[in-house]
Amino acid sequence: MEPRDLYARAVAKWGQHAVLLKLAEECSELSSATVHWVLGDLKPGPRYDDVLEELADVEIMLEQMRSLGMDWSGVRQRKLDRLARLVGAV
User: Fold this and answer.
1) pLDDT of residue 75
2) Which domains does the chain have, with CATH numbers?
3) CA-to-CA distance for 72 and 22, rounded, in angstroms?
4) 48, 52, 57, 60 alpha-carbon torsion, rounded to 10°
5) Do 10 and 26 touch, CB atoms closer than 8 A?
6) Over the stretch 31-87, which tens digit does the pLDDT of each residue have?
């Protein structure tokens, strides 16, 4: 099954509210995993693997947000432009 179809089915099955709450949960888990990885001196191993797992979960949830019609590409570009200014790339 194509990921786009899978995302749409997930939203249809659990509903928009549940998907939004799951996004918040996955972001929280990514935050926690990242902190534990940093506190573990950023070494490869289980903590690094936890970060990869949570990054994948957050990415999947973001794609589900896109399947709901949310489009943050304009906001993203504005933030990239700001980052470019901050690092002296423009």
Assistant:
1) 98
2) 3-86 (1.10.287)
3) 19
4) 160
5) no
6) 999 999 998 877 778 889 999 999 999 999 999 999 889 999 999 999 999 999 999
**In three state form, how does the secondary structure of the chain look?**
CCHHHHHHHHHHHHCHHHHHHHHHHHHHHHHHHHHHHHHCCCCCCHHHHHHHHHHHHHHHHHHHHHHCCCCCHHHHHHHHHHHHHHCCCC
Name the residue type at position 16.
Q
- Structure confidence at residue 1 (pLDDT): 87
pLDDT of the residue at 13: 95
- pTM equals 0.87
Contacts of 39 (CB under 8 A, 6+ apart): none
Q: How many CA atoms lie within 13 A of 32 on its CB side?
A: 9
